[in-house]
Structures are given as C-alpha cells and as structure tokens.
Amino acid sequence: MATNTSRKSIFVRRLGRHHFAHLRAFSEGLDVQASAKRYLGIEHGHEAKTAHMQTVDAVRMVARRRGESAWRLIGLRITLSVATGAQPSLDDFIAEQNLDGWSEAEVAEMYLDAYPPDKKSQRREKLRARQLQLLKSLEGVAAETPLPSDLISGWFDDVTANKLISAGMVTMADLGTKIAVGGAWFGTLPAVGRTKATRIKNYFEMLLPQLVAPKTASFALATNHGLFAPVPPLESAQSLIVLPRPALPPLATLPTSMLSARSDQEAVESWIAARAGSMLTATAYRREAMRLLLWLQNECLGKTLSQMNVDDCGNYMAFLQAIPAKWISRVHAKPGAPGWAPFKGPLSRKSQAQAIVIIAALFAWLQSARYLPTNPWLLVNQKTGDDVSEKMLDTKALSEAAMQEILTFIEAQAPSPSRTRIRFILRFLESVGLRSAELINARLEDFRLEPEGWVMQVHGKGAKNRIAAVPGQAIEALQQYLALRGVGSLQSAPPQAPLLASTLDPMEPIGYQALYEHVRGWFYKAISASALPLNERLKLSGASTHWLRHTFGTRAIAREVPLDVIQAQMGHASIQTTTAIYGRAPIKRRVDELGKAFA
C-alpha cells in the first residue's frame, strides 16, 4: 500500500523505534490518539489518524520489500475472545472437579470435553503472535536511531519542521542546544506557545535522550565561604535583582570616601540612586553591576571592585562574548531560586557594548566619589566592534502593509475598551513618536493649542522637557479615544486625566508592563491572522510598543521630513543619533550625488 500523498501533513519520513512502539501499543489495544500522542509527538487529536496511517503505510512498505507475506497484519487490531480469557486453568479445573488421582490423559480429555477449543480464538492468538513477531523483526532491520547530525525534517512532521528550520534549528543538535538553554527557548518559533513547545521537547527527549542536558536543582554561586546565599536588597521593594554582599573594602580607604557605603553592593545602590533617571535605567544598571559582582566572586576568587585590575577587565569582556552554559538560566525563576542564573542567553554585540559602557560609568563614578582608588577601565579598549551580521538599514519598524493588516484586524474585532485603546495607541504613536514611558506619564493638561497648531509638553529621557508636535492624525485618534472613554473631548475633558487609561477606569493610568503586554497581545493575534509573507511575520514576532516609535522615525524619513525636525520631535540628544538610527536620507543623498558624478 503506497503512502497517500494527498494528505496535508507528512508525519513519517524516517522510521524509528518509536514508530514500532506505537504500532505495538495500538495492537495491544491502546487508543490511536493516546498512542500517537505518546510515541509520535502528535499535538492535535485529528492528526493522530493521519500519523497512524502514514506509519502503517511506511512499515507495510518495508515488509513488502522484504517479501513478508503477512504484511497486511501490520496496523490491524486483533482482539482476542473474552471467553478464552474466562476459562479456568487446568489446575483450577482439577481442583473444582475433585480430579486428584486421575491420570493426565484422563484429565486432559475431560478438560477438552468441558472447554472445547475455540478455533477463532486460536487463530486470533496465532495472528497476534505473528503480528508482534513481524513488528519485532522489521524493527531490527528498518528502525533508525536518530543522530545529532540528522536533519530536523527527517524526524518531525513537516509543519513543525518548517517552524523549527525557519528559526535556525536545522539539525537535531541545533534543537537540542536550544532546549538545553531552557526558559522560553521557543520564543522565535512562529505560533508556538508553551504547550506546543513542551510537546516538541518531550518528543525530542524520547528520540535523543542523550542530548538533553541534566536538570540542575539550582544555580548555586560559590564564594570563598562556600555556597552563595542571596540576601534581600537594600531597597527591597524597588530592587528587581538580588545582589551578593561581597567582602568589605579595606577600612583604610573608607575615611577618604565621599560615600557612606561599606560594601560594594551599597556603593552600587548609591550610584544607581544618584545617576539612574528612571526605573528602567535603574534596572539595567543594577543588572549589569550584579553580573560583574557575581563574576568577581565566582571566577576571580572573590575579588572586590577595588581589587579589579586591567587583566580582569579584559577577561570580563571575553566572558561576555562567550558566556558559559552554567551562567545561563534554564528556567524562568527569580534571582536565587532553583534554576536561576544571571543571563538568559548569549549576548549580542550591542548588549556586550552596553554592559561595558554601564560598568565603565560605574567605575568612573565610584572613583570620583573616592570609593575606588583607581579605575582600570580607563586603560582598556572598551570598543567591542560591530556585529558582522547586523543589517545596518534594518529597523524595528512596521511597514505600511503590516500596519494596515494590523489595523484591519483590529477593526474587524467586536467593540471593546481594549480594541479602542490599541487603535488609539497605533495611530497616535505612529504620528507622534513618543517613548513608552512618555506615553504612560502624559496627561491631557500637557496638550495645548498654539497659533502653530496642537503641541504637547513631554517629560522625556534624562528628565528633560521638550515640545512635541501633535499632527492631525494623532489629534483625530485622541478625540475618538476620549469620546469612547466617556470623558468628553480634548477641550472639555478633565486636565488631570491620563492620556492612556485603564480599560476599567478612564481616569486611572496604566503601567509599563500592562502597556507592553497589551500591545504585544494585539500584535501577536493580528500578525498571526495576517496575509503577510512568512519572513515578515517572523520579523514581526518580536514587535513591541517601542517598534511604534521606530515606525514614526522610519515613516517620517520615507516622507522626506528633515532630520532636524525628526530629532527634535523624538527628543534625541544630537542629530547624529537620529542619523545613526534613521540614516536613509543621508544615504539617499550620497547615492544620488555619487550617481551624478560617476554616471
């Protein structure tokens, strides 16, 4: 029997021992859906029958090629007669009939008279035995053992394989490496959530258990005094990451210090309190400082910041470029909890550069405060260089087509406060270009109508104020949003009303996490349902609120808005920042001018 090529999905390309285990389980009476889920990694029940029939076809084909006359037995469920199982054993028959002392021949004759053989049952038993023996024989010659170098497409159904390959997992070893990292390893897989990822992981572990890294109970950090035990941070409610408490710096250096800190952790918190202008900045500062302190404790025999030298700086930069597996979290856990580690995965070149910039700023500040006698980072080349794979003209922005697809999806949904809010966010940020924090903190009193038109005062990055123009598209979106919130128009609404409000209370603002999840959730649903090309849907799988700010910049460049106007609107410190992010206008001028010269 040939494999039915009209089926939508291909589940069997290479035969493994798990396929024969499925057929045996089915033969023994296990439900086809339960068996396919257990042995074939099937996610949806309606796929079980297709996967089962493809397995049967593939094994039957092997049997026919080997000239096995009983190939039709493969895939059959041979049920045994209930009566066969109900008749007593010969010993029980002798006891029941009080036949002790009778000869074996006489007892056997009476037993056959009482329970004549069921020819159908005997035939079924023989067929079942022959079926199982045939499966065992075929398994020995046809079942392959998966290898790390095998292609994903050979062992996974074609739909799952295409998703894995599109995310860069081409071989079984690639997938094993991703799974071993743990956490949200499936984040780059399109339309794969935690449930589907668990099914893929379990199926992979059944195929290649040797590639699955052993699970560790916790990420214990060793110090000179034994295992690291986390301590509560000094600003408990505000500190998002727990820092270790290293040894105190020598007391001889403390009298000259301008800080009251008596440990590196306290010094770090003083720096954050003095220099971090926002909660997000404080989180980034604390994360990088914590990582350095843990590295000094575990990789440098418990050194403190004051003991760090030039060689240590170079070694730490090398460490960031190739983070060991034990430093990467396998599970999503809070600091100090079992399975936690300081890194979620390898760092990109940009993340490495940012980490070094933050650490260098920490040392410069601590030296200025006389907490540290020297700053070894001044003697180190801190440049990490550019990533060779970086596409310089790529931006995290929504194309015109993507924006239209998302808006079309939103308009097709049933009216709700959530739909009202996401529609406003898209249209407003696309034409104004605010940061997420600026959007959250804005109130209606920040808007005013000047002779030049509508503007709003923004309290932006670095605690700096600026005036942002509010074009017609943004004003129209805002007026509609306020009306649907029931607070009136921009001219009549309460001045203290937040620009962006809770869906439950029009006068209650929302936080950063709520905004992030709100936008991400709508993006995911809209992009999944869109007709966009696969490569664009994959790119947009990571889209968040910040992408709307880049969308404004990209759209403004495409519509030939001058760079200095974009710089002022977005609140960039210099026009070089604007040019670096949205550099198409200078490139277009360069191409045009050189084209004229060398036509």
UniProtKB/TrEMBL annotation:
CDD domains (UniProt xref): DNA_BRE_C
Domain called Tyr recombinase: residue spans: 393-596
Protein name: Integrase
PANTHER family: PHAGE INTEGRASE-RELATED (PTHR30349), TYROSINE RECOMBINASE XERC (PTHR30349:SF77)
One Gene Ontology term of the molecular function aspect: DNA binding
GO biological process, one term: DNA recombination
Main location: cytoplasm
Annotated compartments: Cytoplasm
Domain of life: Bacteria
